[in-house]
Amino acid sequence: MGLFTIIRKNRQKEKEMRILFLGLDNAGKTTILKKLNGEDISGISPTLGFNIKTFVHRNYTLNIWDVGGQRTLRPYWRNYFEQTDALVWVVDSSDRMRMQDCREELHSLLLEDRLAGASLLIFANKQDLQGSLTSAEIRNALGLLSIKSHHWKILPCSAVTGENLVEGLDWVVDDVARRLYYSTAIGDTAPHPTFKPATISVS
Ligand SMILES: Nc1nc2c(ncn2[C@@H]2O[C@H](COP(=O)(O)OP(=O)(O)O)[C@@H](O)[C@H]2O)c(=O)[nH]1
Ligand SMILES: [Mg+2]
Asked: Is residue 201 part of a domain?
C-alpha cells in the first residue's frame, strides 16, 4: 500500500476537511460563519487574529479557519495554508474601491504551493446591499476566468439574508470530497449528474 493510499484511508476514516476563509477585512467572513452557525450576527467586531469554527455538515467535520484580513495581518495568512482543502475567498461586492486590491491578493494566494489543489469558492457577499456588483461583474473584476490552477466557483450571497451560504458549503464539500474521498463520497450524496472534474461554473 503506497503512502498516498494510507493517507487517503486515514482521511476517509476521519472525514475531516480544513477550510480557510480569507478575503479583505470587512468582506463578511466572520458574519457568514456566524450566520451558518445560527449565531447572532449583530455587533461583530473586526477579527484581529483568527477564529476556528467546527461544523458537522453532511457527515463531514469541517474545520473552518477565519483569519483577519486587514492589510497588516495579511502577511500572516501564510501561517494557515498547510493542509488546506478549500479556500473560501469572501468579497464585499459593494466595495468597488478595493476590487483591484482584492484581485491582487487573491491571485497572489493562488501562486502559493501549499494551496495548490485546494478548491476555491468565491463568495460575492453583501448582495442585499443596493448597488453591489453582481457575481458576473465580480468574476470579471477579479479576473476569475484566467484561473486555471484551481477548481473554482463563484456564488452571490448575503450573510444577512443567508442567501446561498449553505449552497456554497455544499459545493465546497462536494468538490473536496470528490478529490479526497472519491470512493466513499458517492455513498454519502448522489453525485451531480452534470459534474465533470474540470468544470468551471459561474452562477
Ligand atoms: N449588508 C450586509 N452587511 C454585511 C454582510 N456581511 C457582513 N456584513 C457587515 O460587514 C461588516 C464586516 O463584517 P465581518 O464579518 O466583520 O467581516 P470580516 O472582516 O470579513 O470578518 C459588518 O458590519 C457586518 O455586519 C452582508 O451580507 N450584507
Ligand atoms: Mg472577521
From this structure: no
Q: What is the pLDDT of residue 1?
A: 60
Contact at 8 Å (CB) between 27 and 44? no
Any residues with CB less than 8 A from the CB of 140 and at least 6 apart, and which? none
Q: Which residues surround ligand 2, an ion (CB under 5 A)?
A: 29-30, 47
- Is residue 190 very low, low, confident or very high in pLDDT (cuts 50, 70, 90)? very low
Q: What is the pTM of this model?
A: 0.86
Report the separation in Å between the CA atom of 48 and the middle of ligand 2, taken as the mean of its atom positions.
Answer: 7
Is 9 part of any known ligand binding site? no
pLDDT given for residue 181 in this prediction: 82
The reply to whether 83 belongs to the active site is no
Q: Is residue 187 part of a domain?
A: no
| Closest ligand 1 atom to Cα of 125 | 27
pLDDT tens digits for 128-137? Answer: 999 999 999 9
Q: Give the distance (Å) from ligand 1 centre to CA of residue 2.
A: 45
**How many domains does one find in the chain?**
1
Q: Which is catalytic among the residues 70, 83, 100, 130?
A: 70
Structural domain includes residue 199:
no
Structural domain that includes position 120: 3-182
**CATH number reported for the structural domain that contains residue 131 in this entry:** 3.40.50.300
> What is the percentage of the chain residues whose pLDDT exceeds 90?
78
What is the reported pLDDT for 193? 34
Chain centroid offset of residue 10 CA: 24
Residue 104 domain-assigned? yes
Burial letters 177-189, b for 16+ CB under 10 A, else e? bbbbbeeebeeee
